[in-house]
Amino acid sequence: MLSAMNLRAGLISELGEREGDPVLDSEPIVAWIQRLTTMSLEEASRWMALAQEDFRAIPIEKLLVMRRLKNALNTLAHALPKTQVEQKHPELVPWLQFRTRLP
Fold first, then answer.
1. On the chain, which terminus has fewer CB atoms closer than 10 Å, C or N?
2. pLDDT computed for residue 53 by the predictor
3. What's the rounded Cα separation, in Å, for the pair 81 and 60?
4. Looking at the predicted structure, is the pLDDT value of residue 9 above 90?
5. For helices 27-36 and 2-15, angle between their N-to-C axes, nearest 10 degrees
6. Burial bucket for residue 69 (CB in 10 Å: 0-12, 13-18, 19+)
7. Cα distance between residue 5 and residue 79, in whole Å
8. Total Cβ atoms within 10 A of residue 90
9. H or E segment at 1?
């Protein structure tokens, strides 16, 4: 799924977003990220604060969830300048700002 979304984001970045287009619509990327967001931003923040003390204290399952989410957010960030995602989905803005702190 990551490769397909990276391809979509790259095309959106080059050609611009086209709502309703089977390839150039950013909504499938947003829906994918929403499916991957299985923890709250507050929970992720607590885990990352703990990681500063001892990274090994974070369960591997939590690390994997956060890493998948970071990869997805990076994909969206690639296409972001050519989309209206921040206006349509303001709930993603804090995640996009936090993504650099994710593992």
1. N
2. 87
3. 33
4. yes
5. 140
6. buried
7. 10
8. 9
9. none
Mean pLDDT of the 71-95 span: 95
- Asked if 73 and 95 count as a contact pair (C-beta separation under 8 A), the reply is yes
Q: Please report, for residues 9, 49, 53, the alpha-carbon distance to residue 29 in angstroms, rounded to integers and kept in the order given.
A: 8, 28, 33
79: nearest Cα among 27, 2, 21, 17: 17
Token readout for 14 is 């080059």
Give the whole-angstrom CA distance, residue 34 versus residue 52. 27
pTM score, two decimals?
0.91
Q: Which residue has the tokens 């804090």?
A: 94
**Residue 32 pLDDT > 90:** yes
In the chain, % of residues over pLDDT 90:
92
Q: Which residue has the tokens 């959106």?
A: 12
